[in-house]
Write the structure tokens for this entry.
Amino acid sequence: MVTDLTPEPAQPLTTKGQATRERIVRAAAELMFRDGVAGTSTPAIRDAAGVSSSQIYHYFADKEALTRAVIAHQTQAIVDTQSELLGRLDSLTALRAWRDVVVQAERDLHCVGGCPLGSLSSELAEHDPSARLALADSFSRWSGAIRDGLQRMIDRGVLRADADPHKLSLAMLAALQGGLLLAQAQRNSAALEAALDAMIERIEQHAVAPGG
């Protein structure tokens, strides 16, 4: 006799249930960004979300499951927003406009907190393999959005065909993450601006010469 071990599909959430779940995730994301995952307790999330402990455990089996949901939430909030901006990337002017948006966003936060995905990675990557994989996927999506924009620039003849969009996108994301970390420590955006500007100058070296 063969036993079907495939889990029953989860019942779809009602509109009210989805709203409650999202409220819990948003509260957890804000607390984990401010206090770290280890410094965020379930009772603190409960109070911030205005729900009961039983409601939290109705939607999430444990804190680890909630943390995965926070990673997904931060990915959507950050990477999807960047993807929208980078989806319009078809020129060096557009690349600089994206840079300005990133820098202004950090200034608006007074350079406090760093990158939510970067902070989660620093805290979780060494001892939570599933979180590390989820975060690696988030960063891959981010660099992929940059890569796709650079590829469009190649396709449109803005950049030469010998430009490597994969390598350049990884370097751009590394510059962004390093710049955000230094901005957090130094409480100013100078390092972030310098890192992004240096990468844009590097990309510009692949620009097609006028009349070329």
